[in-house]
Amino acid sequence: MKRKFKRQQRTVGAIVEIPLNNGFKTYARILDEYFAFYNIYTKEQLDIDKIVSSNVLFFGGVFDTAITKGYWLKIGKKLPLENKLNDVPPFFTQNFINPDKYTIFKNGKGVPATKEECQGLEYLAVWKAEKMEERLNDHYTGKKNSYVARMKRAELHSSINETKKIKLHSNINKEAV
């Protein structure tokens, strides 16, 4: 089935339908800064009450073009947000230059954190619509998503940083000789 694209505005409280592989779809709710992705994987068109009563799978950031360029179509009308959507869990980041530095973000404010405090939190990232669709497809088909795996592995940044230091160090030693 060919996708329909329709330009739309980002509307907090609106529900979007996200097309997945093999005719499946899922739904998300537009929040102030993020999306709440419902734990729904279906080929059926669900009614709004069924969608909003479903559990949230995770919260995440997606570029506005998912909505404004019509990749994900809004369905139904804007609804007030339920309490469960007003309490977005914290996210974390890791400093690429200094991988021992972490920050936890909650309600737009960042505080320094330890690696242990970041365990189990979602990495703060903004996804392209198609990459988020890939992540959702992978989740529902039991496949490990490479982007999520990379974001959850703090060792990746540490090992990249160590490799850069080793190369830099070896170049300095060659020049000294």
Quick description:
The chain has 177 residues and is an alpha+beta fold.
Key features of this structure:
177 residues; six-stranded mixed β-sheet; four-stranded mixed β-sheet; 24% strand
Structure description:
The chain is an alpha+beta fold and 177 residues long. The protein has one domain. Helix content is 33%, strand content 24%. The protein has helices at 48-52, 65-68, 83-86, 115-118, 129-140, 146-152, 154-176, and strands at residues 15-19, 25-30, 35-38, 56-62, 73-75, 91-94, 102-106, 109-113, 122-123, 126-127. The strands form two sheets. It has a six-stranded mixed β-sheet. Strand 1 and strand 2 form a beta hairpin. Mean pLDDT is 85; it is low at 154-177.
